[in-house]
Design brief:
The protein is mainly α and 130 residues long. The chain is 32% helix and 8% strand. It has five helices and two strands. It is globular and about 45 Å long.
């Protein structure tokens, strides 16, 4: 990209987040979309032979809630989960993975963060610690 001969990369599946994180470089930032093969939770767990998990730590810039909502708790049950909820209501997924927003609709909640809290607490039996 012209003007970006040095290495500057801001990557996310959330185009809005990329825009806001990049506009300090130049406004509007030149955004290029590239499809990159990913891996889902089940494949990751199976590849590494994981059947038990002590700590699930997620820090994925506005995607934390969706990643936790899509975790296969029937395959491996973390003892503890740490994630940020700050941007959860702003992210809209464009794939088939379960999202916190879908969880909110299913549970009749308007806020995906509250829905995810309820899901973790009421359906999976986790204790929430602020």
């Amino acid at each position: 990209v012209t003007g970006f001969e040095t290495s500057t990369l801001v990557a996310s599946r959330n185009r809005t987040w990329v825009y806001h994180a990049s506009k300090w470089l130049v406004d509007p930032p030149p955004i290029a979309r590239r499809d990159i093969a990913g891996v889902d939770w089940v494949s990751l767990l199976e590849t590494h032979g994981v059947s038990a998990l002590g700590l699930l730590l997620v820090d994925a810039e506005t995607m934390d809630c969706d990643l936790v909502a899509s975790f296969p708790f029937d395959v491996a049950r973390p003892d503890a989960i740490v994630f940020e909820q700050g941007g959860c209501e702003h992210y809209v997924s464009d794939d088939d993975a379960p999202t916190a927003s879908e969880l909110a609709r299913r549970l009749g909640e308007s806020d995906p963060r509250i829905a995810l809290d309820r899901y973790l607490r009421e359906e999976l039996g986790y204790v929430l610690v602020p």
